[in-house]
Amino acid sequence: MSDLNSPSHFKGKEALDHVVEAQVEGLMASTEIHGEEMPGHVSAATDAARETALLLLLGWIILSLGHFSPLQNLQILGIVALAWMIWKAGRSAWLGWSRLERLHRVLKQEKWEIEHNRAQERSELADLYAAKGFEGQLLEDVLDVLMADGDRLLRVMVEEELGLSLEKTEHPLKQGLGALLGVSFSAALCLLCEFLFPGYGLPFGSFLIGGAAAAYAARQIGNQLIPAVVWTLGLFALSAGSLFFLMQYVLR
């Protein structure tokens, strides 16, 4: 709290410079491991689906070089998928909770600044709304209205100064559920393909899931579909090929 108790809220900076610095801090606080262009639970699901497909593909390659029956291969891969699902769901939920904690700290600090540095907050608001085209008496009226309502002022400062959107904040369990569904769907399809077409079904299902998840994620954030799919499948092939040939070298 030493920064909050310092004599100068701007720390020697102009109000507009302080606003820019605060926006950077807010963007950092709002960023999560899955990115901020699409909902966290959707990103968690697509990432989990791709990673599960690759994990099962690598596991299938290792098992195919051993002396297990097709049924044993399916059982082992199913156990691996279950353990992986627990990890991914828990990790996504924990990351979501960590993000909420960071946002809470930012909101708490901003509320303290509003309560103890109202003159500086008004100056920041003036710079923000002047940049939007407000000027003269209209600007003063807007500032008076915002400064008169503490809750509204906090919301405006959070959204305008820090660049945060409280409506986009998701519950950690929702992100964990997204990861759980992503792993479940990916594992079920890969194992079903291997059950129906032993010997080559799982690689087919793995590449299918990887490509579909990459395409869906790219579509959600407005990126080009073909490069996203090509890069994902290329990395799948490179990872699987590296494992296969290195295992051949180790086991020879």
Description of the molecule:
By secondary structure, the chain is an all-alpha fold. The chain has one domain. The N terminus is likely disordered.
Keywords:
single chain, 252 residues, mainly alpha, 79% helix, elongated
Looking at how many chains there are and whether they match, the oligomeric state comes to single chain
Provide the domain count: 1
Which structural class fits the helix and strand makeup? mainly alpha
> What overall geometry do the principal axes of the alpha carbons give?
elongated
Specify Rg, calculated over alpha carbons. 25 Å
Q: Could you provide a short overview of the structure?
A:
This protein has 252 residues and is mainly alpha-helical.
Q: What is the fold's blueprint, element by element?
A:
Layout lengths: L14 H16 L9 H25 L5 H47 L1 H14 L4 H13 L1 H12 L10 H25 L4 H21 L3 H27 L1
